Amino acid sequence: MSRVGTAVIGGGLAGSATALALARRGHDVTVFERDPSPCDKVCGEFLSPEGCREVEAMGLDLKRLGAEPVSRLRLLAGGRSVSSPLPFRAMTISRRRLDPALRSLAGGVGADIRFGARVTSVEEGELRLGSERIVADRIVLANGKLDLRGWKRAATPGDRDHHIGLKMHYRPGAETMAALRDTIVLCFFDGGYAGLVPMDADTCNVSIAVTRRAWTACGGDYGQLCRVIAAECPDVAPALRNDAALWPRPLAVGHVPYGYRAWAARNGPDWLWRVGDQAAVIPSLSGTGMTMALIGGRLLAACLDEGRSQADYARDLRQAFAGSIWRAERVAALFQGQRRRRIASRIADRFPGLLPLVARMTRVAPGPT
Question: pTM here?
Fold first, then answer.
């Protein structure tokens, strides 16, 4: 049996940000990352301006990591296409690049990063990796959208028809990439929405949030889902061609608990903390999930370093994220149902200034510094 100070389960953005901030404050912190090597994650790979600032404050150069600028938004819904400049400049970056860079930073300042470490269970003061037992002063759940057995997040209203998250990288050709350059495309269809962003000179990321009901109606077939999306949003059809896909099948997460808010759930034990998607899950269309993970890691580290309570941490999270989650949920609701999509897209077409306003409204606050 071994002993660690703070055990962080998950070495993604939230876990790495937490470990980095704690290690820089002199804490004994160990990250348990189940994947033995860099890998892709189900993620829109979009960094809002606040997220860019968090990454740069940590000491990383996004351009050197291959990040791509984004300054325009294109909305496809209800048979219409509406474009507008974003009221800010954002970036897109592969999680395969960003996650390892953050883990490397954390390891460089003293955090112990253990790869291929799959935590199977957690109880007070102890975690297990198969038959191995590790004692920890405190445990941080940073395992993303997946739940750890025995520590499932509280149900949300959307659980009645929860969303499935899917992600695929495509290489669709020069003409399609030219149309995507510097642009995030949001397309709404019956049962969900998809986001397309350029990743580099010839690759784009397509991330889809689809309800369980709509996924079942497609027979659980990704190709059929893409055909449904292309039928309602023909402009994205060239980017969703089977022969342009870079992987044999999409990455998938079976249950995305949109709307989960740790501060609205029943308080957990004092020794167990949540960060990233374990603390709050915002609709993906907002483009702020990665930013929330980074900010949340910083807020949690500060709270632990100062010896503050979970109530204090919940208050910090609520201050930073609650308003944005509520507004993003309202925006998502505007496009649920064919009639609503037609009305919402007609209004956006008539008043294009609304798109930058909505983009600004769904940004998150940086929280206490």
Answer: 0.95
Report the distance separating Cα 313 and Cα 297, nearest Å: 11
- Read off the tokens for 27: 């804490």
Q: How many CB atoms lie within 10 A of CB 208?
A: 29
What is the sign of the dihedral through the CA atoms of 143, 148, 153 and 158? positive
Cβ-count burial of 324 within 10 angstroms (0-12 exposed, 13-18 middle, 19+ buried)?
buried
| Pairing assessment for the beta strands 121-123 and 126-129 based on DSSP bridges | antiparallel
Nearest to residue 190, comparing CAs of 341, 345, 73? 341
Q: Report how far residue 280's alpha carbon sits from residue 262's, in angstroms, rounded to the nearest whole number.
A: 6
Per-residue pLDDT of the chain (369 residues; tens, 9 = 90+): 799 999 999 999 999 999 999 999 999 999 999 999 889 999 999 999 999 999 999 999 999 999 999 999 999 999 999 999 999 999 999 999 999 999 999 999 999 999 999 999 999 989 999 889 999 999 999 999 888 888 988 877 666 668 999 999 999 999 999 999 999 999 999 999 999 999 988 999 999 999 999 999 999 999 999 999 999 999 999 999 999 999 999 999 988 999 999 998 876 788 999 999 999 999 999 999 999 999 999 999 999 999 999 999 999 999 999 999 999 999 999 999 999 999 999 999 999 899 999 999 889 888 776
**How many whole angstroms separate alpha carbon 193 and alpha carbon 209?**
6
CA distance 68 to 52: 11
